[in-house]
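User: Could you go from structure to sequence for me? I need the amino acid at each position, not a summary. C-alpha cells:
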C-alpha cells in the first residue's frame, strides 16, 4: 500500500501528470519534453526522475540521448495507462501539449525520411537483384505463426520492417540496431503502423545488452552479410534465446556480385548452408533444413534453428563478460 500511495503522490502534480500523458504517446527525450512543457530542463528532469522512481515511466539511454516512455508491463504501468485514459484530450493544457507533441513528431519524421531517401536509391537497386520481398516476408510470417513465440528480437532492425510485419504476431517485440539514423526511421515507421508493442534500441549485435534466455524468437534479416564475425553474431543470438526458441536468419546464398562488397559494404558475398548449419550447431542450436527463394541473380535463404534444451558447455576461451552499455541499452 505504501508503494501505491507513493505512486499516486508522484502523479498528483500537474506537470508530472502532463509528462505521464505525453510519455504514453511515444518515446520522448528530455529536450523534447522541455520544449513541449515550456519549463526549464532541470525542473523537467526532476519531475521525470520522480516518475521513474515511482515506476510510472521507464528511462533509457541511447548514446548521449535519454528517452522516457510509459512503463510497459507492470501493475503500475497498467495504472498509468488508466490515468492517461481518464485525462481528456480536450482539456486545454493537455490539448496544447498534444499539439506541440504533434509538431515535434512531424519534425522527427521529416529528419528520418530525409535520411531514408538519401539511402533509398541504393537499397532499391539491391532489392531489384532478388526475389520480391513480399515472398520473403510471407515465409517469415508463416514461420513465426508456426513457432508462436511470445516475444521477438529483431537484430539489425534497420527501418523496423521486420517489427512491422512480425510484432503484431507476438506480445512484445524489440529491434536493435547500431545506427541512430536507422532507429529514427524505425521509430517513425512503428508509430505510423500504430505498433505499441514494438520498441527499438541502440545496440550491437556482437554484445547484446540483454539477459541470457530472454526471447522466444530472434530474426536477423539481411544483416549477417555486414558482419565480420557472423558466427559470433549467431552465438550471441543463441545466448539470448530461450531453450526451444527459434533463430531465423535471412541472407543471400553464395554469389559473385563484387560490387556489393565495393559499393555497399557487404563483407560476405552470401553464405553456404553448411557453414550456417555449423555455426548454429556450435552455438547450441539445432538447424532445420533451409528454405531457398530463388531470384536473379541473388537467392535469398531462410535458415532456422532451434535452441537446444540443455546449454552447450562454453569453452573458457569463448567466455567474456556481457557488456551493459551505458546503463540498460547501448
Ligand atoms: C540492410 S539493413 C537490414 C535492416 C532490416 N533487418 C531489414 O531487413 O529491413 C542492415 C542493418 O544492420 C545494422 N547493423 C550493422 N551492423 C550492426 C551491428 N554490429 N549491430 C547492430 N546492427 C548492425 C545496420 O545499421 C542496418 O540497419
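Assistant: Here is the amino acid at each position, in order:
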Amino acid at each position: 500500500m505504501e508503494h501505491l500511495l507513493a505512486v499516486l503522490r508522484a502523479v498528483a502534480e500537474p506537470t508530472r501528470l502532463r509528462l505521464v500523458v505525453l510519455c504514453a504517446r511515444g518515446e520522448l527525450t528530455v529536450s523534447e519534453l522541455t520544449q513541449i512543457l515550456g519549463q526549464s530542463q532541470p525542473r523537467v528532469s526532476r519531475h521525470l526522475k520522480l516518475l521513474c522512481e515511482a515506476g510510472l515511466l521507464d528511462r533509457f539511454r541511447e548514446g548521449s540521448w535519454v528517452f522516457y516512455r510509459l512503463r510497459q508491463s507492470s501493475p503500475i504501468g497498467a495504472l498509468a495507462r488508466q490515468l492517461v485514459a481518464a485525462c481528456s484530450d480536450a482539456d486545454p493544457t493537455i490539448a496544447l501539449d498534444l499539439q506541440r507533441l504533434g509538431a515535434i513528431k512531424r519534425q522527427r519524421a521529416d529528419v528520418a525520411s530525409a535520411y531514408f531517401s538519401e539511402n533509398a536509391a541504393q537499397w532499391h537497386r539491391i532489392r531489384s537483384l532478388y526475389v520480391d520481398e513480399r515472398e520473403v516476408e510471407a515465409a517469415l510470417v508463416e514461420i513465426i505463426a508456426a513457432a508462436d513465440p511470445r516475444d521477438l528480437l529483431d537484430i539489425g532492425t534497420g527501418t523496423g520492417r521486420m517489427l512491422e510485419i512480425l510484432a503484431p504476431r507476438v506480445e512484445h517485440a524489440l529491434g536493435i540496431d547500431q545506427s541512430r539514423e536507422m532507429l529514427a526511421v524505425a521509430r517513425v515507421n512503428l508509430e505510423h503502423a500504430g505498433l505499441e508493442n514494438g520498441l527499438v534500441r541502440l545496440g550491437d549485435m556482437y554484445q547484446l545488452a540483454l539477459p541470457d534466455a530472454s526471447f522466444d524468437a530472434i530474426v536477423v534479416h539481411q544483416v549477417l552479410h555486414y558482419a565480420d564475425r557472423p558466427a559470433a553474431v549467431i552465438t550471441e543470438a543463441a545466448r539470448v534465446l530461450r531453450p526451444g526458441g527459434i533463430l531465423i536468419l535471412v541472407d543471400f546464398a553464395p554469389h559473385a556480385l563484387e560490387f556489393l562488397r565495393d559499393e555497399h559494404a557487404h563483407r560476405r558475398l552470401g553464405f553456404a548452408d553448411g557453414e550456417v548449419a555449423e555455426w548454429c550447431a556450435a552455438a547450441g542450436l539445432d538447424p532445420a533444413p533451409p528454405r531457398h527463394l530463388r531470384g536473379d541473380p541473388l537467392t535469398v535463404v531462410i535458415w532456422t534453428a532451434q535452441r537446444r534444451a540443455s546449454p552447450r558447455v562454453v569453452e573458457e576461451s569463448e567466455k567474456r563478460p556481457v557488456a551493459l552499455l551505458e546503463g540498460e541499452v547501448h
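One structural detail worth keeping in mind: The radius of gyration is 22 Å.
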